[in-house]
Amino acid sequence: MTTAATRVVFLLGDPVAHSISPQLHTAAFAARGIDAVYVACAVTDAVAAVDGLSALGALGANITVPHKRAVWEHVPHRTPEAELIGAANTLFRDGARWVADNTDATGVQRVLTDDIGLRPADGVVVVGAGGAARAVAVALGRIGARVRVEARRSDQATQVQALAQAAGAQELPPGAAVRLLVNATPLGLHGEGLPERYLQFADDQLVLDLVYGLRATPLVALARQRGLSAWDGLGMLVAQAAASFERWTGRPAPVAVMQRAAHAALRS
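and the corresponding structure tokens:
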């Protein structure tokens, strides 16, 4: 039961109706005995929303599409991780000030290493050039993968490619073998598919779609139909959520509780 003492963490984005983050975090707060709730808010003006967090006495916030870059630009205090990635997905308090952080790279790197088993020098194509793609680029660089970033705007793709290489990646030349395809765009959230050129999979190719849902996304479903291993974005969601939880509370995240809550939320 909420009271006047209950703290609130906000999710700021548009859209947010599909998000299961409230279920993950509310379960995590309960498991740790923390009097807090997590509320998703559809906002078009993220800067105004962030400016209101202190007045509301918020415990923290997550930032999602399409506001990660705008919030990063607006909040002057940033962690080194957020500074490197150039996007913010988490706000936490440091005394009276808000600090912008990014837990996406931590989340996706865990999936890439623990679930997918990506190896140094594996070839990876990343589709997208937004905040999620920037986090993926950093994670791939830290692994030492060979990377090629593709997006509708070539200038943005070039920026993310440079970020990957600054983090330790090598450039994947055209025609080189692609071990992993990563969809770091929102395509698939509402049933859309990637352009046909990305769907000509090699026999041993792996697929990671950062979109998640109750049913497999079109990209994941197609890959599995062709006998390939494919992952959606649920594992990354839980991993980055756990890191955000620890920023807000200073307590270890109950990861198993969050995983169960995520699966239950998708089934409900």
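(Above: one complete record from the training split.) The chain has two domains: 7-102+238-267, 105-232.
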